[in-house]
């Protein structure tokens, strides 16, 4: 991540909205007026001036869409925000470093709000090539308005350049941040940048439950995956949903065919590999995308690109435990290592029961940005602890309803009564989980029904701890 192109504004400036969760951060200053002016005092060398004017106005419009801020371009000073394209040392003591690295930097309102862009970059308009001017400008203007960098990787105000997004939309985290400074949009009208603002009902987070959404009525998934920029997407039928930290992002679902041109509906599985490219699977074929663009002559046959992996898989993911690709189908799974020959060892497939507590025939699997591994089946999901190699212990227990916890459906249960599929574990497996020395959660030290009975304790040592040691050895060998 440190080698990725990024904003030059330092991280961890100001305060977040909630110390317990990753949220937007406010620098602490804001403009006292909402009618702001700007000027492009120095244009880039390799772009048409009219194109730059349009992209800058469009970038300001990102923020006026959700607030009563207006932005008016002027040809001369004085203005609130001055915009310049510079190279190297340019008079502010913070020199640019050439192509890549730092793309731009901007000053918070208390320091004037000006925005500087590195003219050594290959700035582009509506293209996946080079560096997209609109998206970087929208990010920098967030700083000019008082927003610091967000810890939410899918947010526009995340510090790293996410790459060109042809269907760009402001993340709910960004919206909450800018509205914390300037309030919600009070009505329609001019945004001050040449475009009409939306009505008030489109500017605020939905207050009503999502009970009418298809995902709330039937939360079963086809696929779930992260992209190279840290965004999380869920596929279902011919539609896709972008997920925030705790719900579905505003404006979704959208058609898969619009988001990933050339990709069919009803995808079986998807994952993004360490090279930043995303792979989609359906039936006997797979597709590879670089961002939203098809990356070559696809589809191709699974048995050609992923030798040893079956067709019609249920789920796939890159597991954080070892960086290998795992495929799941029915009651079995396969480990794929592209650096080995053959990439799938002869000891595979292996039973899914090796992933303690995970059911057969899962719908999706994901290594999420918080470091946990998640498995989805039907309307439930399981959080997997990679250190203990078992379902994570928490209150409420897993599995949990995905509609409430992942998709923000407020009128749905937040937990299930009973252990559901956990009841299929044997008595010894339940106790074994309570004795796992690698856990750091709040599970009880041991099952209360074994207290105060020495003979039972001896049985426990014989029947539980010995198998636990053997199982630990087995896991080491298996990995």
UniProtKB/TrEMBL annotation:
Free-text remark on how the cofactor is bound: Can bind about 5 Ca(2+) ions per subunit. Binds 2 Zn(2+) ions per subunit.
Organism: Clunio marinus
Domain annotation Peptidase metallopeptidase: ranges: 27-184
Binding, Zn(2+) 2: 7, 139, 143, 149, 157
Positions with biased composition (Basic and acidic residues): 440-450
Binding-site list for Ca(2+) 4: 222, 268, 363
Region annotated Disordered, chain positions: 182-212, 432-454
Name of the protein this chain belongs to: CLUMA_CG008519, isoform A
Location of Phosphotyrosine modifications: 298
Chain residues that bind Ca(2+) 5: 270, 316
Residues binding Ca(2+) 1, per UniProt: 119, 121
Database matches in InterPro entries: Hemopexin-like_dom, Hemopexin-like_dom_sf, Hemopexin-like_repeat, Hemopexin_CS, M10A_MMP, MetalloPept_cat_dom_sf, Pept_M10_metallopeptidase, Pept_M10A
Keyword terms of this UniProt record: Calcium, Disulfide bond, Hydrolase, Metal-binding, Metalloprotease, Protease, Repeat, Signal, Zinc, Zymogen
Catalytic residues, chain numbering: 140
Composition bias type Gly residues, residue spans: 185-195
Listed Low complexity bias regions: 196-208
Residues reported to bind Ca(2+) 2: 112, 114
Single GO biological process annotation from the record: proteolysis
Positions of Ca(2+) 3 binding: 97-98, 118, 121
Residues that bind Zn(2+) 1: 90, 92, 105, 116
One of the record's GO molecular function terms: zinc ion binding
